[in-house]
Protein backbone atom coordinates (compact mmCIF):
# COMPACT_ATOMS: atom_id res chain seq x y z
CA UNK A 1 0.00 0.00 0.00
CA UNK A 2 1.39 3.35 -1.07
CA UNK A 3 1.21 6.22 1.39
CA UNK A 4 0.02 9.58 0.16
CA UNK A 5 2.60 12.30 -0.33
CA UNK A 6 1.64 15.73 1.01
CA UNK A 7 3.74 18.83 0.45
CA UNK A 8 4.24 20.95 3.58
CA UNK A 9 4.51 24.68 2.90
CA UNK A 10 6.02 27.40 5.05
CA UNK A 11 2.67 28.43 6.53
CA UNK A 12 1.84 24.85 7.46
CA UNK A 13 5.11 24.35 9.31
CA UNK A 14 4.88 27.73 11.01
CA UNK A 15 1.30 27.11 12.18
CA UNK A 16 2.26 23.72 13.63
CA UNK A 17 5.36 25.02 15.41
CA UNK A 18 4.03 28.36 16.69
CA UNK A 19 1.15 28.19 19.16
CA UNK A 20 0.71 31.94 18.63
CA UNK A 21 -0.04 31.56 14.92
CA UNK A 22 -3.65 32.31 13.95
CA UNK A 23 -3.93 28.94 12.18
CA UNK A 24 -2.33 26.85 14.94
CA UNK A 25 -5.69 25.57 16.27
CA UNK A 26 -6.45 24.07 12.84
CA UNK A 27 -2.90 23.11 11.90
CA UNK A 28 -2.01 21.00 14.94
CA UNK A 29 -4.85 18.45 14.61
CA UNK A 30 -4.53 18.34 10.82
CA UNK A 31 -0.78 17.69 11.12
CA UNK A 32 -1.42 14.92 13.65
CA UNK A 33 -4.02 13.40 11.31
CA UNK A 34 -1.42 13.32 8.52
CA UNK A 35 1.05 11.60 10.84
CA UNK A 36 -1.61 9.12 11.99
CA UNK A 37 -2.39 8.33 8.33
CA UNK A 38 1.33 7.72 7.67
CA UNK A 39 1.33 10.35 4.95
CA UNK A 40 4.75 11.02 3.48
CA UNK A 41 5.42 14.67 4.21
CA UNK A 42 7.54 16.43 1.60
CA UNK A 43 9.13 19.87 1.83
CA UNK A 44 12.08 21.73 0.35
CA UNK A 45 15.20 23.43 1.61
CA UNK A 46 13.66 26.71 0.33
CA UNK A 47 10.62 26.18 2.59
CA UNK A 48 12.88 25.37 5.54
CA UNK A 49 14.78 28.63 4.99
CA UNK A 50 11.50 30.56 5.08
CA UNK A 51 10.28 28.74 8.20
CA UNK A 52 13.46 29.45 10.14
CA UNK A 53 13.33 33.11 9.09
CA UNK A 54 9.69 33.43 10.20
CA UNK A 55 10.38 31.75 13.51
CA UNK A 56 13.24 34.14 14.20
CA UNK A 57 11.13 37.18 13.34
CA UNK A 58 8.18 36.13 15.51
CA UNK A 59 9.77 34.54 18.56
CA UNK A 60 12.09 35.50 21.35
CA UNK A 61 15.62 34.11 21.11
CA UNK A 62 14.88 31.35 23.65
CA UNK A 63 11.60 30.40 21.95
CA UNK A 64 13.30 30.51 18.55
CA UNK A 65 15.98 28.07 19.69
CA UNK A 66 13.35 25.70 21.12
CA UNK A 67 11.20 25.85 17.99
CA UNK A 68 14.18 25.31 15.69
CA UNK A 69 15.23 22.31 17.82
CA UNK A 70 11.71 20.88 17.44
CA UNK A 71 11.75 21.54 13.69
CA UNK A 72 15.22 20.01 13.33
CA UNK A 73 14.01 16.90 15.18
CA UNK A 74 11.05 16.52 12.81
CA UNK A 75 13.30 16.73 9.75
CA UNK A 76 16.21 14.66 11.08
CA UNK A 77 14.03 11.84 12.41
CA UNK A 78 12.68 11.15 8.95
CA UNK A 79 9.17 12.47 9.50
CA UNK A 80 9.59 14.46 6.30
CA UNK A 81 11.25 13.93 2.93
CA UNK A 82 13.44 16.88 2.05
CA UNK A 83 13.88 18.02 -1.54
CA UNK A 84 17.12 19.98 -1.85
CA UNK A 85 17.21 22.49 -4.66
CA UNK A 86 20.71 23.35 -5.83
CA UNK A 87 21.92 26.86 -6.38
CA UNK A 88 22.99 26.57 -10.02
CA UNK A 89 21.06 29.26 -11.83
CA UNK A 90 21.62 27.54 -15.17
CA UNK A 91 19.75 24.44 -13.99
CA UNK A 92 16.70 23.50 -16.09
CA UNK A 93 14.79 23.39 -12.81
CA UNK A 94 15.21 27.11 -12.32
CA UNK A 95 13.60 27.76 -15.71
CA UNK A 96 10.71 25.47 -14.71
CA UNK A 97 10.26 27.43 -11.47
CA UNK A 98 10.13 30.71 -13.36
CA UNK A 99 7.45 29.38 -15.71
CA UNK A 100 5.02 29.27 -12.79
CA UNK A 101 5.15 33.08 -12.65
CA UNK A 102 3.99 33.10 -16.28
CA UNK A 103 1.22 30.57 -15.64
CA UNK A 104 -0.26 32.71 -12.86
CA UNK A 105 0.67 36.29 -13.84
CA UNK A 106 -2.06 37.97 -11.78
CA UNK A 107 -0.93 36.32 -8.54
CA UNK A 108 1.86 37.75 -6.42
CA UNK A 109 3.75 34.50 -6.09
CA UNK A 110 6.97 34.09 -4.19
CA UNK A 111 9.85 32.24 -5.79
CA UNK A 112 9.50 29.62 -3.05
CA UNK A 113 5.84 29.12 -4.03
CA UNK A 114 6.93 28.47 -7.62
CA UNK A 115 9.60 26.02 -6.47
CA UNK A 116 6.99 24.24 -4.34
CA UNK A 117 4.51 24.01 -7.24
CA UNK A 118 7.16 22.53 -9.52
CA UNK A 119 8.20 19.98 -6.90
CA UNK A 120 4.57 18.99 -6.44
CA UNK A 121 3.99 18.72 -10.19
CA UNK A 122 7.12 16.62 -10.74
CA UNK A 123 6.31 14.28 -7.84
CA UNK A 124 2.60 14.18 -8.72
CA UNK A 125 1.62 15.51 -5.28
CA UNK A 126 -1.92 16.88 -5.29
CA UNK A 127 -2.30 18.09 -1.69
CA UNK A 128 -0.41 20.70 0.29
CA UNK A 129 -0.46 21.30 4.02
CA UNK A 130 -0.67 25.06 3.62
CA UNK A 131 -2.63 28.20 4.41
CA UNK A 132 -1.76 29.90 1.13
CA UNK A 133 -4.49 30.21 -1.53
CA UNK A 134 -1.80 30.31 -4.22
CA UNK A 135 -1.66 26.52 -3.98
CA UNK A 136 -5.34 26.34 -4.94
CA UNK A 137 -4.81 28.82 -7.78
CA UNK A 138 -2.01 26.57 -9.05
CA UNK A 139 -4.41 23.60 -9.08
CA UNK A 140 -3.56 21.87 -5.80
CA UNK A 141 -5.77 21.01 -2.83
CA UNK A 142 -5.04 22.63 0.53
CA UNK A 143 -5.06 20.75 3.85
CA UNK A 144 -6.57 21.75 6.26
CA UNK A 145 -8.07 24.46 4.06
CA UNK A 146 -8.58 28.10 4.80
CA UNK A 147 -12.10 28.47 3.49
* Biggest sheet layout: 5 strands, parallel
Order of helices and strands: EHHEHHEHHEHE
The shape is globular
Q: What percent of the residues sit in helical stretches (DSSP H or I)?
A: 40-55%
- Helical/strand content category: alpha/beta
Stretches where pLDDT is under 50 for at least 5 consecutive residues are: none
Number of strands: 5
Total helical elements: 7
| Distance between the amino and carboxyl termini | 31 Å
**Domains counted in the coordinates: how many?**
1
What's the CATH topology label?
A: Rossmann fold
> Briefly, what CATH class?
Alpha Beta
Rounded Rg: 15 Å
Tell me what portion of residues adopts beta-strand conformation. Answer: 5-15%
Q: Could you report the average pLDDT, rounded to the nearest whole number?
A: 87
CATH architecture group name: 3-Layer(aba) Sandwich
What is the fourth-level CATH superfamily?
Answer: 5'-nuclease
Question: In what order do the strands lie side by side in the largest sheet?
Answer: 3-2-1-4-5
Amino acid sequence: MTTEQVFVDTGGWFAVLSADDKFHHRAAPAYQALLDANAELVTSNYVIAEVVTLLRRHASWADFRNLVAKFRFIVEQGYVSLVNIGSRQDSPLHEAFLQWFERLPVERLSFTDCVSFEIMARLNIRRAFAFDRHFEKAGFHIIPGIS
